[in-house]
Each structure stands twice: as structure tokens, then as C-alpha cells.
Fold this sequence. Notes:
Elements: H1 11-104
Amino acid sequence: MSTMNALSVPPSVATPLFGLWSDIAGLYRGAVQANTEQLMLSSAGIIQEQMLRAFITASQSCADALAKNALSVQQKSMERLAEANGKAVGLMGRAFTQAWMGNLQPVR
């Protein structure tokens, strides 16, 4: 009986074992590759979806803010125009009163 090293494998067994290990490694490589692809694609899809939602939300928020600003500016504008109109009427009334009163004064 010859003494064999515990790790040595006879060549007639080694070739099929190495082929088997190569096949097994290929199975795992394929599974890992498919998992990695799925993770990358699904992650990219999630990121794209979330960015689109954020963009839509930001656009709606911006539109709301612009509408509120336009309403506020329009309201202030109407207040300023009403104030200017009131002052103009006052000036015209004073001028008319002064002109009318000036015509009523006795001639010297």
C-alpha cells in the first residue's frame, strides 16, 4: 500500500472534479451576474421614478407659489391704483373747489 498525501487526487479523478467545479462556479457566476443586473436595473428604475416624482412635486409647488405671488402682486397693484385714484379725485376736487371759489370772490 502506498502512502498518498491526503490532498493529492489521482489524475483519473482530478479531471472530472475540476470540470465539475468549473461548472458549479459557472452556475454561481450566472446567478450572481443575474442578481447584480437585476439590482442595478431595479435601482436605476427606482431612482428614475423618484427623481420624476420630485420634479413633478417641485414643478407643482413652484406653480402654486407663482400663482400665490401673482395674486398678491395683483392685489397690491389694485390697492395702489385705488389709492392713486382717490388722491387724483381729491386733487381734482380741490382744484375745482379753488377755481369755483375764486370765481365767487368779489372783484375789487
